[in-house]
Amino acid sequence: MRRATDEATGASQLPAVDILPPPPVESAPIAQVESAPRAQVESAPIAQVESAPRAQVESAPRAQVESAPRAQVESAPIAQVESAPIAQVESAPIAQVESAPRAQVESAPRAQVESAPIAQVESAPRAQVESAPRAQVESAPRAQVESAPIAQVESAPIAQVESAPRAQVESAPRAQVESAPIAQVESAPIAQVESAPRAQVESAPRAQVESAPRAQVESAPRASGWGLLLKP
User: According to the UniProt record, where is the region Disordered (predicted)?
Assistant: First the structure.
């Protein structure tokens, strides 16, 4: 009877087996951690994540990377930093931001760009410099302003334009020259004054008009009293 019962239940045929828990993740081989579920990696000590392959860190949740030591983020592939929240990049050392791709710097908050070294701004795309605060552009090296689009120079303070090289002023739109101080126009090449609006030339000092080509003076409005200059 007992034999029949044992055969039915299988009690006498199965040896006792102890079910052991898996080894802790900290002491597990890295291969095991890579294939482990993300949930296990997230709760693992940061020290383990630091020594893990970069591929694992890149695919890890952003929250884990953000709380990781700065040293880890600095040595991480630039691709990881680009997709990281901007808050992480802002608190990163400036050296990291300088070597980052331009695309990352362009989308960064203005406050970050303003405090960045001027060398970084110089090599940045013009579009970034144009939207930067005027104070930053004014203190930038002249070379940067000269190669900047004329649109940027037009909205710049007149004081900046006055100290700019003459070549830049000559190629500037007429509207900018008209509103410039007369002192700037006086020292400008005569070719620029000739193509300037009559109103500007009329208010110019007599000495400048006298040395102008006769053709310009002859076509000037009589109302300005320049006819006196035509008398022998």
Answer: 1-78, 106-127, 194-232
